[in-house]
From TrEMBL:
<feature type="domain" description="Helicase-associated">
    <location>
        <begin position="504"/>
        <end position="564"/>
    </location>
</feature>
<feature type="domain" description="Helicase-associated">
    <location>
        <begin position="357"/>
        <end position="415"/>
    </location>
</feature>
<dbReference type="Pfam" id="PF06527">
    <property type="entry name" value="TniQ"/>
</dbReference>
<dbReference type="InterPro" id="IPR009492">
    <property type="entry name" value="TniQ"/>
</dbReference>
<protein>
    <submittedName>
        <fullName>Helicase associated domain protein</fullName>
    </submittedName>
</protein>
<feature type="region of interest" description="Disordered">
    <location>
        <begin position="665"/>
        <end position="715"/>
    </location>
</feature>
<dbReference type="Pfam" id="PF03457">
    <property type="entry name" value="HA"/>
</dbReference>
<feature type="domain" description="TniQ">
    <location>
        <begin position="2"/>
        <end position="140"/>
    </location>
</feature>
<dbReference type="InterPro" id="IPR005114">
    <property type="entry name" value="Helicase_assoc"/>
</dbReference>
Length: 715
């Protein structure tokens, strides 16, 4: 007895047992008998398949009188596995079942089987998607878990047979036909699982026309899913495999990743026309998740290049989008007495662990709390509110948002529709600031330069208005919600700084700084006071005051003078800073030049005072007045301002000018003009003891200056 091409091994053994008038179990016992025991692993079910080892296959070949190479060509699972028996060596077999373990199969056409074998014995065959229809005898070969399959007559539904012919033509003409059918099957399967709209007429009519008389309606709706959706699946696969459609979708996106399918109206129009359902355009426009959205998103992302990786990404169907197996959904077969079928227990989605589901629910609690507090889910990635990495969690979900299960995506979308917007979370947060500002302070008034907003927010709004034509369509929609449409964006003016308000703010910081430090002299260009760049602002005001290039407003100059009369002195700011330092050091003390100002705790201030004494004649009248305020007058010392009456031997100064009094610090020495000799102060404070005479230097080593004396040795 010859097998049918593509037949299941167990189906062939069942027909072989019927040929010998045996039961299937008796035949299995005969071909796997080892020491009087049946060497078969697994349970026998109507939808099972069996794998045999070499010894058992030899016995089957001898029973049916067909060479093994013929059986190998006809039976796909003939040599697929070499099972080991339960009782050691010898012939053995292993029974398997389930859609994960056994390839897709279905019942063989009864008419074709009877014509081929001459017997009315059912058979089962491995079937490809395009082999589900027997066009000659008009049968749909339906797979039903737990049974040997069900051939469904298609006499009243010719569109299924026409779809099968188009399916075969698609596979012959398009290299991506098989992958396109998988994507289309996922799309129609997702539509099948949703509540049918009232506009849907074809599926209910087809469901009723193909339902057997004794089949329960709810049971048949689950079992006939692939049959009822087959014409739409083939039509959608032909459309998705079209390269011109893919190119039009990419061009229509405008370079933006789609947020919802409504952004690709041409694609939706062609889908609705191909499926003969005009109402689909409106219904699919709001879809932001699902297999069709994932395909459109991948199409725009890959830009339809010819690389193999892009081709694979375009036709990848994630496990969350695949139709659930019938064994998970199909209720028990109705009883013969008409009792309603018992529904199967709800099973979790395959490919998703319970641990991952619990983690999602726990994270969703934090997301709800954040949304309640901030009004959005545009969470920065580094955010860790309540010591939970909410920002990282949402960032990971945005990365794989097209692969999320439908119930998780729906939960996040119900909480915040823009949780996975195709633009940055920073943009979304700034938009919320603009929306809140408009709600609190009224319209934004772009034509007047956003006068009520802060400078940073107004500048951001103006920048978005300049880029309005290039914004994402959904971003333009969000801007419309805050009163900025295309016309308003075109008429927008840049946000101008309020110079008066900024000057008042700067003066307030200057007052605070002067009250804290006593003056404004210590403000440098890098000074930042309470977040305000006071140093840069004050440097600009000093530059305007000195150069006159940009006259300083009189009111601002008076305000700065009231804060610090010497905020912009005509001399170097370093002198002013040293003056304030010396003033603070001399507060409550009497300055005594005769002891070298040694009464001051600040030696730097003492040195600076001696330098001022040395250059007192060169100071301006205002500087002398300031020094007089702290006790430095032309007669501060007993010998006048800075007279030096000590000999070079007493002071350690080598200028040698003893014919006339020299300025303190040796004005004849250029180095001492800039830095007074510390030895002079030390000598006046405590004169040195007489030193023994030194040996004169050698004549050839003596150096003379212009006065004929040795030069001063600066330390």
């Amino acid at each position: 007895m010859a097998p049918l091409r593509g037949e299941l091994t167990l189906s062939f053994l069942n027909r072989l047992a019927a040929r010998y008038h045996l039961g299937l179990r008796d035949l299995l016992a005969a071909i796997t008998e080892t020491d009087g025991r049946q060497n078969v692993a697994g349970m026998l079910h109507p939808d099972s398949e069996i794998h045999l080892n070499a010894q058992a296959r030899a016995r089957v070949s001898a029973l049916c009188r067909v060479p093994q190479h013929v059986l190998e060509q006809a039976l796909p699972a003939w040599t697929r596995e070499e099972p080991s028996g339960k009782y050691g060596s010898g012939p053995a077999g292993r029974l398997m079942r389930g859609e994960e373990a056994v390839a897709a199969w279905g019942p063989a056409c009864p008419a074709c089987t009877a014509a081929r074998t001459g017997r009315d014995v059912p058979a089962r065959r491995y079937l490809a998607p395009e082999q589900r229809v027997c066009a000659r005898h008009r049968y749909w070969l339906m797979f039903l878990p737990g049974t040997s399959g069900l051939p469904v007559p298609l006499g009243r539904r010719p569109e299924v047979i026409q779809a099968q012919r188009r399916h075969v033509r698609l596979l012959r003409r398009s290299p991506a036909g098989a992958q396109a059918l998988e994507v289309a099957r996922a799309i129609t399967g997702s539509w099948w699982g949703q509540p049918w709209p009232v506009e849907e007429r074809l599926w209910p009519a087809r469901l009723e026309a193909t339902r057997p008389d004794d089949a329960d309606v709810s049971w048949w709706k689950v079992a006939a899913r692939d049959l009822i959706t087959y014409p739409e699946t083939v039509a959608l696969a032909r459309l998705l495999a079209s390269r011109p459609l893919q190119q039009r979708a990419v061009a229509e996106s405008g370079g933006h990743l789609p947020y919802r399918l409504g952004e690709l109206p041409a694609l939706l129009t062609e889908v609705a026309h191909e499926l003969q359902r005009p109402w689909l355009v409106h219904r699919l426009a709001t879809v932001t998740h699902g297999p069709l959205f994932t395909w459109a998103h991948s199409c725009v992302t890959t830009r339809v290049p010819g690389e193999a990786t892009a081709h694979k990404a375009l036709w990848r169907v994630h496990s969350t989008h695949r139709p659930r197996p019938l064994s998970d959904l199909l209720p028990h077969v109705p009883a013969a007495d008409g009792t309603a079928p018992v529904p199967r227990p709800v099973m979790r989605l395959r490919g998703h662990s319970l641990q991952a589901e619990r983690a999602f629910e726990r994270s969703l609690v934090y997301a709800r709390a954040y949304h309640q507090q901030h009004g959005h889910l545009a969470v920065p990635k580094e955010d860790a509110s309540w010591d939970y990495p909410l920002g990282t969690w949402l960032s990971n979900l945005r990365t794989r948002h097209t692969r999320l299960p439908a119930h998780q995506a729906a939960a996040l979308h119900a909480l915040y529709p823009w949780w996975n917007a195709p633009w940055s979370t920073l943009w979304q947060r700034t938009w919320h600031q603009a929306r809140d500002h408009a709600e609190d302070h009224g319209p934004l008034k772009p034509a007047r330069g956003f006068p009520t907003t802060s400078y940073s927010l107004g500048e951001w709004l103006y920048l978005q208005c300049t880029r309005y034509p290039a914004l994402h369509p959904e971003q333009q929609h969000l801007f419309t919600q805050i009163g900025i449409n295309a016309a308003a964006a075109a008429a927008a003016r840049p946000r101008r700084r309020n110079l008066k308000a900024r000057a008042e703010e700067a003066l307030a910081h200057a007052r605070s700084y002067a009250a804290e430090h006593g003056s404004l002299a210590s403000v440098t260009s890098a000074t930042v006071h309470e977040g305000f760049r006071l140093g840069q602002w004050l440097a600009n005001q000093r530059n305007y005051q000195r150069t006159g290039h940009r006259p300083l407003p009189a009111g601002r100059a008076r305000a700065l003078t009231a804060i610090d009369p010497w905020w912009c002195p005509p001399w170097n700011l370093k002198w002013q800073r040293h003056y304030y330092r010396a003033r603070d050091a001399a507060a409550g003390r009497r300055l005594q030049a005769e002891n070298g100002f040694n009464a001051l705790d600040d030696s730097g201030a003492a040195d600076w005072l001696w330098r001022q004494c040395a250059t007192y004649d060169e100071l301006s009248e205002e500087q002398r007045q300031l020094l007089a305020g702290i006790g430095i007058t032309p007669h501060v010392g007993p010998h006048g301002p800075g007279t030096c009456t000590y000999s070079p031997e007493e002071t350690g100064c080598g200028c040698g000018r003893q014919d006339q009094p020299s300025q303190k610090g040796c004005r004849s020495c250029d180095s001492h003009r800039s830095a007074p000799h510390a030895a002079c102060r030390r000598a006046e404070a405590s004169p040195r003891a007489p030193q023994p005479p030194r040996a004169p230097p050698r004549p050839e080593t003596r150096l003379r200056n212009s006065h004929g004396t040795r030069p001063c040795l600066a330390r």
